[in-house]
Amino acid sequence: MALPNGYSINSTPLDESEDGEPLIERNAVPSQCCSARLNLAFLMFLGFSVVYGLRVNLSVAMVAMVNVTDPKPAKNSSIVHACPLPAGMDNTSDTFPQPDGIPQYPWDSETQGWLLGAFFFGYLCTQIPGGYLSGHYGGSLFMGLGVLCTAVLTLLTPLAAQMGIYWLFALRALEGFGEGVTFPAMMAMWARWAPPLERSRLMTMSGSGANFGAFLSLPLTGYICQTLGWPAVFYLCGGAGCLWAVFWFAFVSDDPRTHRRISEEEKEYIISSIGPQGTGHGWSVPLLSMGRSVPLWAIIVCQMCSNWSYYTLLTSLPTYMNNILHFDLKSNGFLSALPYFGAFLAAMLAGVVADSLIERKVFSVTTVRKLFTLTGLLPGAAFLVAVGYSGCNHILTVTFLTLSTTIGGISACGVYINQIDIAPRYAGFLLGITNTFGTIPGVLAPIATGYFTKDHTLAGWRMVFWVAAGINIGGALFYTLFGTAKIQPWAVTEEEITEVEKNRSTSINT
Fold first, then answer.
1. What are the angstrom distances between the C-alpha of 9 and each of 74, 110, 193, 354, 487?
2. Which of 54, 95, 337, 448 is the most exposed place for a label (fewest CB within 10 A)?
């Protein structure tokens, strides 16, 4: 649908760059305050906070679930620590005592790595189907069920751990299976809800719930483990997910056309600004054209590379804080969470700045996406390397980790939302594809970390940080060379082609 004073942003002539796109006048834009689209972003924010709480709770709880750092120490010898123990800490074990009746397990670092990576085996399987179905039917049902199923399974974690590591591995994989649809469903919903001039701030607000969830759950998990015992972590996180699902199904709609409480002014603004791209993609998708799309591969490679460092820290940072720096469990949780609070703030601010730069035509959309990607990933990689050379200095280590992850949050409005730029109506499906590849590091990074750090040495952890930083830099450079924000020819609808031809014919006749 065209705007009264010109084309919609997503229905411009195909041979124009994004800098030539006519923009909506400010007086035609209804306020975001208390709007349906802002309420949707807030509920998504809460949803992803829960999602990441469900995802990372095992990372901290693992410290309390295992009864020794190394279950097979040499006889008549104490454990050799990479960093000196704080005064008053026992030199024979890193066990965290649990309340009476709470079991602990003799899992070595390799077993822990496999259990932490198990989630991502299931997470890989439902990304693409979730994105495809969300793009066709709408994403609200899939996101709601994804969180709800994962929450219910989380409630069974203590039982699975008691039954054995294979049961726990299978349960975590099933949790990943349920949660895998959530991000593609979010992207499919924003393809119908997010006006192009507000994409960065709305999508970073909803997606930053992931960092906020990690920030909240990491310290709370440590506190709960030491006070109530580690099983309580999974009961409380699972309960929170079930409660969120009630509000989600009560207040959310797939499309502004079917929302019960949206104003006519806001509905008309959203539909007009998105244009024909704000509809479902039907059953057929241009798979061959997508497979040959260089901009799509640029997103895939960059997300894979940047996710390696993200998942390394997400799953293994509590172990590093425990085994190397010897923080107690409460401090471990808080300090492990600090970097994600920084990333949350950086992403929220970056979203506002990115939209402002695009709206004021300071830079093209492509330049904004590349600029924020590079700014987030390159300095973040440098600080990650610095962590490896901080040795046993607690202050430097925490500072560099916080700076690395905080700066990395800037990339949230770069490559991570680029799918909706190049193909809005296929955005959910594309995110399913890119997130499938991007989840591979979630499987491999904890296993690689377990391999490098099996001797619990600083040299091993230094290698972990070097590998993560190098992969990060490679992905950022690849995206800078081959990425774009222009709508791809295979993503243009027949309605848009017809409208363009009609406008050109009218221009020739006049």
1. 68, 51, 14, 17, 11
2. 95
Closest CA to 353 of 201, 483, 486, 209: 201
- Please classify residue 463 by burial: count the beta carbons closer than 10 Å to its beta carbon, then call 0-12 exposed, 13-18 middle and 19+ buried: middle
Instruction: Yes or no: say if 73 and 35 are a contact pair by the CB < 8 Å rule.
Output: no
**Which spans in 360-485 are helix H?**
365-388, 394-408, 419-422, 427-452, 458-482
Centroid of chain to Cα 99? 34
Cα separations (Å) of 494 from 156, 271, 491, 505?
A: 49, 17, 10, 16
pLDDT at position 40, please?
Answer: 92
In 164-198, alpha helices (H):
165-179, 182-193
Using only C-alpha atoms, the chain has a radius of gyration, in whole angstroms, of 24
Q: 342-359 burial, b if ≥16 CB within 10 A, otherwise e?
A: bbbbbbbebbeebbebbb
Q: Give the HSE-up count for residue 479: Cα atoms under 13 Å, Cβ half-sphere.
A: 35
Residue count of the chain, please give it. 510
CA dihedral 386, 392, 396, 399 (to 10 degrees): 90
**Token pair of 218, please?**
């990491």
Count other C-beta atoms under 10 Å from residue 91's C-beta.
Answer: 11
Q: What is the pLDDT of residues 235-281, one digit of tens each?
A: 999 999 999 999 999 888 888 888 888 888 888 888 888 776 556 66
Residue 23 is predicted with a pLDDT of 44
Mean per-residue pLDDT over the chain, rounded: 81
DSSP letter, residue 2 = -
Query: ∠ at Cα 360 (359, 366), nearest 5°?
Result: 65
Distance in angstroms (rounded) separating the CA atoms of residues 159 and 152: 13
Q: What is the pTM of this model?
A: 0.76
Per-residue pLDDT at 71:
43
Which pLDDT tens digit goes with each residue over 387-401?
888 878 888 888 888
Classify 488 as helix, strand or coil: coil
Handedness of CA 251, 253, 256, 257 (dihedral sign): negative
Q: Which of 184, 175, 86, 191 is nearest to 141 (CA)?
A: 184
For the stretch 102-130, pLDDT in tens is 888 888 877 887 888 788 888 888 888 98
Secondary structure of residue 117 in the 3-state scheme: helix
Place of tokens 């949790």: 175
Q: Cα-flanking dihedrals φ and ψ of residue 66, to 5°?
A: -90, 140
* Spatial separation of the C-alpha atoms in residues 217 and 219, rounded to whole Å: 6
Instruction: Tell me how far apart the terminal alpha carbons of the chain are, to the nearest angstrom.
Output: 23
- Yes or no: say if 442 and 311 are a contact pair by the CB < 8 Å rule: yes
Query: What is residue 32's predicted lDDT score, i.e. its pLDDT?
Result: 63
Q: Is the pLDDT of residue 195 over 80?
A: yes
